[in-house]
Amino acid sequence: MTQKSNPSSHSVAASHETAPEATALSPRKALVGAGIVLLILIVLAAVGILRRLHADTVLAQRTDALAAPTVSIAPPKAGAPMETLVLPGNVTAYTDSPIYARTDGYLERWYYDIGARVKKGALLAVISTPELDKQVAQAESDLATAQATANNARIQADRYSGLVKSNAVSQQDTDTFVNQAAATASTVKSAQANLQRLVELQSFEKVYAPFDGVVTAREIDTGQLINSGTGQGSGTELFHMQALQTLRVYTNVPQLFSQTMKRGMKVDLTFPEYPGRTFQGTLVRTSDAIDPVSRTLLIEVDVDNRAGQLMPGSLAQVHFKTQSPAQTYIVPSSALIFRRQGMQVATVTQGSDGAVAHLIPVVIGEDDGATVQIVSGLNPSDKVVQDPPDSLIEGEKVTVESSQSSAFGAGGL
Predict the structure, then answer these.
(1) Could you tell me which of 361, 401, 403, 369 has the C-alpha nearest to residue 385?
(2) Which of 151, 210, 258, 305 would be a feasible disulfide site paired with 297, CB 3.0-4.6 Å?
(3) pLDDT tens digits, residue range 213-243?
């Protein structure tokens, strides 16, 4: 019996028999493929590194840009060649004197109270001094006794001087009486001096005004015990007087303007109690020396006060018209930098790396609170930082606000 063959098995066998054999990869091609893959990896790594470096650079630039302070700048404003220097002044009386007692006792009566205008020699008060009066009477008696004793000694000395010529008395007795006469004469002079001292003290029972002026204080009252002295807690101050016909106004002028202060120049004075009104004074003297602490010159200005409108102790504004000794510049007070190196302002210069700040030492003149006068250190071409941050240092990069810079530059301060 014949077996039938399986068609599927024949077809599979036929397919295996007819399939081509796989070609083996050559070593050269494998090396080229590996090189291509490695190159691709290197390129990808390089691209990643470059991107990261670029990101770091951009971040650093961004950080530097944000770290640079933003400032506004403007050129300084030129000051006027002739300007008015306004300084505070202290008003004092032309003569200011406390009046003390020169003798001890009790106040019997006073005649003038505060605000009274008195003439020189006016009787201000009377002091009762009974003990001193008794001392004067005693001194008068001592003087009379001394004079009598001296007169008797002189008579005896004259008598013995005549008798010694005829050898009626001894020379020794004569010399004794002559010496007694000289001693008693000295005792008389001493008694006279003591009496004169007491009489002069007795004259101080009456207190008189030493000058024309106003009684600004009365420190005593009737019946009060009075102790003599010259102040500093050693005596009783009776009155305080001030001469107000002319007032002295003292002010301190900066050293920069000291050479423009001339004796005889007219000076305007203003007072807060008289708004809109000006009084005129005369510069009469200066201290002729610069104060080494404040670097200022003390000035005295006298003002006529016969009308009695001004009072000592008040504050005045003294207006000097001065010629500026050099070109000055005006900047806002906020532009000043106060550090241990001294007064400084910050300026900005444009370079290849951008805007850079520089700290410049300056010398200031007049300061009115809002603006300050710079007398040394600035040039008209400088760009001054208007409100520098406290952390600003020399050579630091800054960011300039262009809009404000142009506005300040066009309009000035």
Answers:
(1) 401
(2) 258
(3) 999 999 999 998 888 865 455 678 899 999 9
Vertex 24: Cα angle to 18 and 27 (nearest 5): 170
Paired strand residues for 120: none
Which tens digit of pLDDT belongs to each residue from 274-324?
Answer: 999 999 999 999 999 999 999 999 999 999 999 999 999 999 999 988 776
CA angle 252, 377, 85 (to 5 degrees): 30
Q: Give the three-class secondary structure for 4.
A: coil
> Among 22, 24, 25, which residue's Cα sits nearest to residue 34?
25
Q: Which three-class secondary structure state does DSSP give residue 72?
A: coil
The yes/no answer on whether domain 70-79+327-411 falls in CATH 1.10.10.10 is: no
Tell which residue, 231, 218, 208, 240, has the closest CA to residue 126: 208
178-195: average pLDDT: 89
d(CA 150, CA 142): 12
Residue whose entry in the numeric block shows the structure tokens 């001065």: 322
Distance CA 119, CA 87 (A): 35
| Residue extents of the structural domains in the chain | 70-79+327-411, 242-323
Nearest to 273, CA basis, from 315, 329, 242 = 315
**In the numeric block, which tokens belong to residue 383?**
């760009």
Neighbours of 79 (CB within 10 A): 19
Q: Model confidence over 322-351: pLDDT tens digits?
A: 776 677 888 999 999 988 888 899 999 887
3-state helix, strand, coil in the chain (%, to 5): 35, 35, 30
Q: Among all chains, which residue has been given the structure tokens 């004793």?
A: 149
Closest by CA to 388, choosing from 378, 400, 377, is: 400
For domain 242-323, give the CATH superfamily: Efflux pump adaptor protein, beta barrel domain (2.40.30.170)
Give residue 175's region: left, alpha or beta (phi > 0; psi -120 to 50): alpha
